[in-house]
Amino acid sequence: MFIFHKETRLEDLGNGVTRRILAHDGKMMAVEVNFEQGAIGPMHNHPHEQLTYVLSGEFEFTIGDEKHVVTAGDTLYKEPHVMHGCVCLKPGTLLDTFTPVREDFLQ
């Protein structure tokens, strides 16, 4: 399967956050998420495993009881059902990988 960026759709989630679903099948999904400075990814949890790779920018992330500032090249792992969220300190882009697919993103 090939997914060409120009053929994907950018979704405006509001409050300085946009999302682009890159690729997915029944077992995994890749999603690009762009943040403006000050934008917030509210604390939440879900039954999916999630890897987040910081492509650019600077973010203060909370995962469970831990809080750290991350920058380009850093990777975060979120277990199913663990609370997590972030604040964007410098504009940037995250690459999220989920397993299984986030069906709620496809609706």
TrEMBL record:
Highest taxon above the source species: Bacteria
Pfam families registered for this protein in UniProt: Cupin_2 (PF07883)
TM regions (residue ranges): none
Domain Cupin type-2: from-to ranges: 32-94
InterPro entries: Bacilysin_H2HPP_isomerase, Cupin_2, KdgF, RmlC-like_jellyroll, RmlC_Cupin_sf
Protein name: Cupin domain-containing protein
Native organism: Lelliottia wanjuensis
